[in-house]
Design goal:
The chain is an alpha/beta fold and about 210 residues long. It contains five helices and ten strands, in the order βββαβαβαββββαβα. Strands 3-2-1-4-5 form a five-stranded mixed β-sheet. A five-stranded mixed β-sheet has the order 8-7-6-9-10. The model has no long low-confidence stretch (mean pLDDT about 95).
Length: about 210
Amino acid sequence: MSLILALDTATPAVTAGAVRRDGADRVVLGERVTVDARAHAEQLTPNVLGALVDSGLAMADLDAVVVGCGPGPFTGLRAGMATAAAYGHALNIPVYGVCSLDAIGVRTTGDVLVVTDARRREVYWARYRDGVRTDGPAVNAPADVDPGSAGAVAGSPDHAALFDLPRIEPVYPTPAGLVAAVPDWSGAPAPLVALYLRRPDAKPLAAPR
């Protein structure tokens, strides 16, 4: 049995939760979610502390951290991943990075398309079959996304509505989904790598002539 802190800031939802993992069983002990695309950095730590209070746990009780690595906007991802890395370093526990789309898709059954907001009138997307990713992640305009054999769409409600498919839960990564998306708990986690999928909006200034 292990106690996991799960974080995600790849979508407008600022998600933090404490999850007890015992083999394939996952029990969410405490969870705080704030939907605010402009407050990832401000809301994440209060949500973490609130989730721990709800679960009756202290930081020292944690065995690992799981964090969504996108795809998502640069600023949001940086807040979540830097926080997760700091907790891992301070507590000397492993930090596992997962695809945030997987944290949604892993909790679906059948053929499902998962989409989240990529801004610029685009979506991040991936396709899943019984919770296993079969295509993606990628970023495209909705009209350029091929749903394939998907019979439903999960993810951001506003963007899921752009597809002529039934909409299903979940709409954002959840603590249970983040923990379920870790492919292998047996070894040391790989280094955290953000899935930006495109270049950031900010550009370096040109050198003076």
